[in-house]
Every structure is written in structure tokens, then in C-alpha cells.
Amino acid sequence: MKVKDNLIILFIIFAVFGMLVTVQIRSTVSMQKQSALTLDYNRLKNQLDSRVKEGERYKAQIAELEHKKEDFLKAYPGTNSSNTLKNDLDYLKFISGLTDVTGEGVVITLNDAENPDLESQMNYIIHDYEIYGIINDLRDAGAQAISINDERLIATSEQICAGPTIKINNNRYAVPFEIKAIGDPDKLHSAMKNSDVVSSLIQYKKRVTVESQSNIVIPKFMNDINGLISKLEVAENESKKEQ
Hints:
The protein has helices at about 1-75, 80-95, 130-140, 185-195, 195-205, 225-230, 240; strands at about 100-110, 145-150, 150, 160, 165-170, 170-175, 175-180, 205-220. The protein contains seven helices and eight strands. The model is unreliable at about 230-243 (pLDDT under 50). The chain has a five-stranded antiparallel beta sheet with strand order 3-2-7-1-8.
């Protein structure tokens, strides 16, 4: 009996030891997985924080250069020629989208349809070509300045579909898209009311709102303007070549 009792005790000890080892292994594997997920999260968060800080640094540099430019212009003598030069520069900055503008106009909000049919889901989301169409309708109606999600549109701006997002001036945005347009609010509102693009959006139950506002602020183009013209050169006038 004594030998049998000893065997039972040894069996119980080994069983408990085996359970403890199994729990320890599972705990170690779980901690390793959790540690890996934490490292991935921290790495992505650090990358995002770095990009945000880099963007803020660029914005600060642009603002500093703008201040230096304004100080330089103010240092000119108050002659008619210098005033004319400044007025011409202000006008060029305005039409090229390099200055903030304020005025009356319309604000259009675009969003995907709610609860779309999964089999034809692509018909129920906002696409870049639909935004193109609305922008063209606004320009035809006399819009003087346009932005999408506060990204100022200039001559070289593109709206490119990139999966569930759209790239505007090389920055990605997801729905909802807020389009601001400064101009005659009645003409702009009427253009949206009669727009074939807007009618198509509504047909597929995509959400569209158009609101007239009296004090719309559209920020200036904030990207690197030099990068847009790096591959361009001035072509000489043919008449000058002949001379």
C-alpha cells in the first residue's frame, strides 16, 4: 500500500507540474504576441507623429517666408510704381490661389450612401470623376475660388481616387467631402440644383447637401508650388526669335 500511495502522490505532483508548465508556455506566447502588436502599434504611431510634425514644420516655414515677403514689400518707397507692383502681385496671388480669400458662396457636402447594396457597392460611394463634374459645374457658374476639405484647388490640382480615399494636392481624404466655392451664391446654388452629376448622386442615394453662406473662408494653397513647375521652362516668343 505504501508503494501505491507513493505512486499516486508522484502522479499528482507530475500532473500539477505539467499543468503549470502548459500555463507558463501559453502565457509566454500570449505575452510575445501582445508585445509584437504593441511594437507594431508604437512604430506606426511614431511614423504618424513624425509625419504630422514634419507637416507642421513645413507650414511654419511657409508662414515665415510669407512674413519675410510682406516685410520686403512694405519696405518699398510709397511710389506709384511700387504700389502698382504690389497690386499686381496681390492680384496674381489671388487668381493663382496663393492667398486666403473670404466671401459669399456655397458649401457642398458629399457622402456615400447609407447601407448600400453589397453586390453593387461601387455605385453607392463618391468617386473622383463625380467630384470633377461638380467642380466643373461650379467653375462654369463663375466660382472664383474652390476648396475640397480646405485644400485650395489651383490649375494643377488633381483629385485622384485611391481606394476608399481621394488624393487632393497629394493629401488623402475620406468621406465626407466638403466643397467650398466663393462666387454668386444664387448662380452657384442654381448650378448645383440643375447639375446632372448631383442628380446622378441623388439617384444612387448618395448624400448631397448644398448650403448658401455669406462668410466662407477658403485657405491658400499650402503645398510646395516650386515642385509643380520644376519640369517647366519659359518658351520664347516666336516674333522675338525672328528679330
